[in-house]
Amino acid sequence: MSDRLRGDGVAGAARPAKERIGKPGRAGLGAVRREFAPWADPAATPLIRFEGVCKRFGDAVAIDNLDLSVYRGEFFCLLGPSGCGKSTLMRMLAGFEQPDAGRILLDGVDQAEIPPHNRPVNMMFQSYALFPHMSVAQNIAFGLRQLSLSKADIQARVDEMLTMVQLTPLARRKPHQLSGGQRQRVALARALARRPQVLLLDEPLGALDKKLREETQFELMDIQEELGATFLVVTHDQEEAMVMADRIAVMNQGRIAQLDTPGRIYEEPVSRYVADFIGDVNLLEGAAVGREDGLWRIACPATGGELLVASDAVLTVGQQVVVAVRPEKIRIDRARPTDVANVIPGEVWDIGYLGDWTTYVLKLAGGETLKTSRANVSRHVVEPVTWEETVFASFAPDAAVMLTG
Ligand SMILES: Nc1ncnc2c1ncn2[C@@H]1O[C@H](COP(=O)(O)OP(=O)(O)OP(=O)(O)O)[C@@H](O)[C@H]1O
Ligand SMILES: [Mg+2]
Question: Which residue range or ranges hold the ABC transporter domain (predicted)?
Answer without folding.
Answer: 48-278
